[in-house]
Every structure is written in C-alpha cells, then in structure tokens.
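Hi there,

I know you've been waiting on this one. I reran it after we fixed the sequence typo, so this is the corrected version. Both the input and the resulting structure follow.
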Amino acid sequence: MLILYAISAHADITTTSSTLSAVIFYQPPDTIPPDSVATDSTSIDSIDVKQSAESLDAPVKYTARDTIWYDLTNQRVYLLGEAQVEYKDITLTADSIIFDWKDNQVIAMGRKDTSGVLANKPTFSQGDKKYSAQEIHYNFQTKKGKISEILTQEGEGYLHSEAVKRLPNEVLFGAHNIYTTCNLDHPHFYIAAPKIKVIPDKSIITGPANLVVADVPTPLFVPFGLFPLNPDRKSGIIFPEYGQEQNRGYFLRNGGYYFGISDHLDLAVTGDIYSRGTWLTNVASRFVKRYKYSGNVRITFAKYRDFVTESNTYSTSNQFNVNAIWQEDSKARPNSHFNANIAFGTS
C-alpha cells in the first residue's frame, strides 16, 4: 500500500482547500507527483477544453470528505473518504471512487478496516432502486455496469449475487445467486441458482434452482424459477417459513405455489414438512363476484409424526379436513340473505 501526499478537500466541482495531509489509496495516480496539483500555478480558466460529441448531457457532481486528486493526463478524478458522485437521478457513494471523464465511467470501492472487514461499501441508487456491493463499475453514457458481491431488495425478497451485469434498460443478469425473504447478510434459508435474470418491477427468472436451509441443500429442486415482483396479483412461488418445533424437529412451513387465475379466482397449493416425518398439504381457493357473492374453500391432508418424550417413541396420525365458506353480498338480494359455512373431516 503506497502513502502519498495530496490536496485535502471537500468540494463539488472544484477544491478550495490547500491543506496537505497523508492518506492511503488503493490506486494512486502514478502520473502526478506529490504536491504537483498544489504547486501548479496554471489557472483552470486558462485551459481551453473542447466539448466532445460523446460528452454527457448533464453535469456530474462529485464530493469527497478527505481528498480529491485530479489526474489531468489520464482525465481522471480520484475521490477519497465518503465519496459521492451524482448524475441526473443516479447517486453513487463509496469510501473511494475513481471518475474517468474521458470514458464517462466510475469505479467505486470500499475500504477494509483494521479488522479486515470491508467498510463503506459502494451503494448505487436510481429512483427507488438501491444496490449495495463490494465494487461497482458503471458507465454514465452506455448505462451499463458491472457489480460484484451485490445485495439488493427485489419485491419482498433479497437478492445476493457474486457478479452482476446491468444493462441500459436496468435489467440485471447475475451469476452464483441466492434469493431469500430472510433479511440477514447470511440468510438461514434461500433459493440457490447459478444464473438469474431480474426484470425490475416485473419478475425474477432463474435457471435450475435448489432450496437450501442452514447452508444444507435440500432435495427440493426445480428446473427453473419465476418470482413475480409486480405488486398486482401474479402467479409465483410462495417462500416457506423456517423454524423448529420440539416434538417434530426442523420445519419448512407454508411453502408452495400461488396461481393468480383471474381477478375473481385464485388458488394456492402449499405444504409443510418436518425433519421427523410430519408433512401437510393445503389446497386453498378464494372466489368473489362483486355485488353477488364471495367465499373460499380449503382442503387439508396431513400426516403427523410426533415424538413422545415420556415413552421415547413416536405417535402417528392422519388428518383430512374440508372447509368452505359462502357469503352472499347484501346488494344481491336486498330482501333476503344467505350465508353458509361447511366443515367436515377425519382424524
């Protein structure tokens, strides 16, 4: 790691401070000797800069808490300490940022602290979208980017990817991915997929995917996955809950698939599975016709296998239940009203 002396500054486009301070930077500009910017008597106003046809159509604003280096030879700006770059509705923050105004691209990176943990990780935000990553490369002109070790929230889930390519239409292609509803940096359970495609506000599409619990792959495998991100009613996978019960062991509950058949009818097929042999299947459907009726039907079949501590044995039982509810809208027949609730089963 090389120690250089450079101008300490906090500025928007230009710097006004001339205090010298020692700082450490990953990739210092080799073409500028120490203090050359501070001792250069050339006025910025005396430099005749011609605007390129490939220049950006809006100004780029940048700031840094500690230091700003200007590498005029390579047409780069080096930002150190709580660096930030803004362009239109895009905001990029990180510990350190390199802005190459010749190629209209930025490189953002974090910095390891004394314990070796990467701090001040880069974040990329545009509108209501926000990504956190280990390193971000982005071109303002082509609107393409490369992101490593990304973490982003998509819908009600969280996407972790080792490497991501971002296209101009904001579509993401990821390699070595996990998708989960657990908000921890190291989730308890997740869907692991080698390849993934994220279409903002629409869906997440994966190739072959496998459910992993506590970092242990389960036998649950699908050839592809589709996770809707649109808040409107869409078909898609329902993520299970993960936990443990004393008599039945570890479990995955309420996982399955939702079918958004129409605005008047839907269907959900879900199930529970326990490490000690208990399993359960639910088929539930809701229906509604405005000003006429509404209701739901649920069919459940379960096989329970519970551990009995007193006898150190297992007890087993089967259960089958059907529940149905019918409710007539009060506007359907003003002079009469009909409701029904049906339930039967075996155990």
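Quick highlight: The first strand starts at residue 2 and ends at 7.

Best,
R. S.
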